[in-house]
Amino acid sequence: MSTLASKRMIRALAKEQLDRPPFWLMRQAGRYLPEYRQTRADAGSFLDLCYNPKLAEEVTLQPLRRYDMDAAILFADILLIPDALGQPLAYKEGEGPVLEAVRSAKELSSLSFDNLHKVLNPVYETVDRLSSSLPSHCTLIGFAGAPWTVATYMVEGRGSKDYVNIKKWIYSDPDGFQELMEILIRSTTEYLLHQIKAGAEVVQIFDTWAGVLPDEEFARWVTEPTRRIVEAIRREHPGFPIIGFPKGAGGNLMDYVQKTGIDAVSLDTAAPLDWAATEIQPHVTVQGNLDPILLVTGGQKMVDRIHHILKTFSNGSHIFNLGHGIIPQTPPENVALLAETLHNYNS
Ligand code: CP3
Question: Does the C-beta of 46 come closer than 6 Å to ligand 1?
């Protein structure tokens, strides 16, 4: 067996059922780790950290020095795409990302593909470095935001509660909004293909705000753009493993799974386990879905829930993860307890 095929993560994505599932955690590199906070301070700003291959490699490796995870996710951010398209972006302390909003098809002329890969090149270099520095059993995951979620930030100009600007746009001028989606489908596809060329072994597509759309809009702006990206990647790399994370998809999840062609779906915290095991897991590998707040709580309550998730998904292929990213308040020792619980598990 080749080393790639023997990695636990790759085997789970090939729908193999394993003695214990591979695990990694969304946002496993980040502010809950003191060494991350130090490196981020050294880098100056969050964007400087993302565009510094040596430091981005360092923060990607930091959680692996503490915990024996089966995969590492490239350190970057989903909003590097708008940045590379020329939309001014800043991460403000306590506020999150702030962008100069684009709200109509006319305003799209301010975006350009000209510098896309020149700006993103440091990210490809980070992937390249990681592909030789990662422990041999560890899988390298590349990622991008899905067009819909990236568009929410581009149109709202920041995180949003009601998505009123982007929804007004899709309802009043869907063809104009489609132009923005075409820009994002193209740049996201190229971005992921460059990551794959640099050494990413799996990619995950984050659609964090998929859950705010009614069904027909979900099909058009979440499922269809993702399907096109998956298809374009597979045209160049047949069978390449892809994970989708349509957070909050609820009853739209099955349609997403069947139409996009992804190999695994990352389940959010609210996805009911028994339903996911009977309805979703027969079609694709399931990833997830411990509540990140249980990782803040820790103790026996967390261990019991981990066991329950493992048991419920033990009749098919499963990648253990959270239902959303680790939050900064998480005690690192609780992550150690999670890792120990998973390593000691044997179905
Ligand atoms: O370890 C990893 O998961 C890899 C790196 C990663 C980051 N962001 C680093 C980051 C990944 C995969 C992301 C994805 C991302 N970024 C998503 C989708 C997944 C999700 O969590 O919903 C979204 C919506 C973003 C956009 C984004 N980036 C927001 C809204 C924020 C501010 C909120 C926050 O958590 O601070 C960021 C900043 C960000 N991205 C940080 C990190 C470690 C914190 C920045 C800091 O160090 O100050």
Answer: yes
Q: Which domain holds residue 110?
A: 4-343
122 within ligand 1 shell (Cβ under 6 A): no
Does the beta carbon of 205 sit less than 6 angstroms from any atom of ligand 1? no
Q: Is the CB of 77 under 6 A from ligand 1?
A: yes
pLDDT digits (tens, 9 = 90+) for 59-90: 999 999 999 999 999 999 999 999 999 999 99
Q: Which residues are catalytic?
A: 27, 31, 40, 77, 153
Alpha carbon nearest to ligand 1 atom 25, residue: 78
CB 148 within 8 A of CB 212: no
Minimum-distance ligand 1 atom for the alpha carbon of 206: 18
> The domain that contains 99 carries what CATH number?
3.20.20.210
User: How far apart (Å, rounded) are the C-alpha atoms in residues 223 and 281?
Assistant: 18
How many alpha carbons lie under 13 Å from residue 4 in its C-beta half-sphere? 10
The structural domain count of the chain equals: 1
CA distance linking residue 230 with residue 218, whole number of Å: 17
Task: Determine contact, residues 288/277, Cβ cutoff 8 Å.
Answer: no
